[in-house]
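Supplementary Methods, section 5.1.

A reviewer requested that the exact input to the structure prediction be made available. We therefore reproduce it here, unchanged from the version used in the analyses.
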Amino acid sequence: MIEPVLKSKFLGAFVGTGVGDALGAAFEGRRQVKLEEIKAIAERREVLTYTDDTHMMIGVAESLIRARGFGGEDMAYAFTKNYELEPFRGYGSGPPHIFRLIRAGTPWDEAAQGLYYSGSYGNGSAMRIAPIGVFYYDNPRILREVA
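The structure derived from this sequence is encoded token-by-token as follows.
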């Protein structure tokens, strides 16, 4: 794929996720939303503020770049550092608890086990996945493994 097209797709994945998150935050928990309601939010707000979902997506991207690929410990510390810098992003009670455990020395791959025994059932992973797709776009085997 030619570089300008590829770059455009990458930017679209990040910007689209962030804008969708910022627009959708006002409707979180609702089953249905009318297009007019979304348009009204977009027109009324001078500045859109993204939530913890986009904040963690940024952490995924930062870690992939810094570690030159997936590194669980690096990513866990990216999440922790970003949370400490901007805790106002709307994090639920679970992630900050996990971040405190990591800071206290609990290994990154064990910190969530006491909180989410059989995994989380939220949509946060879907919100954070764009950087993985972007980073491994040309290697489907590793993309599946890391995702």
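The mean pLDDT is 89. These observations are discussed further in the main text.
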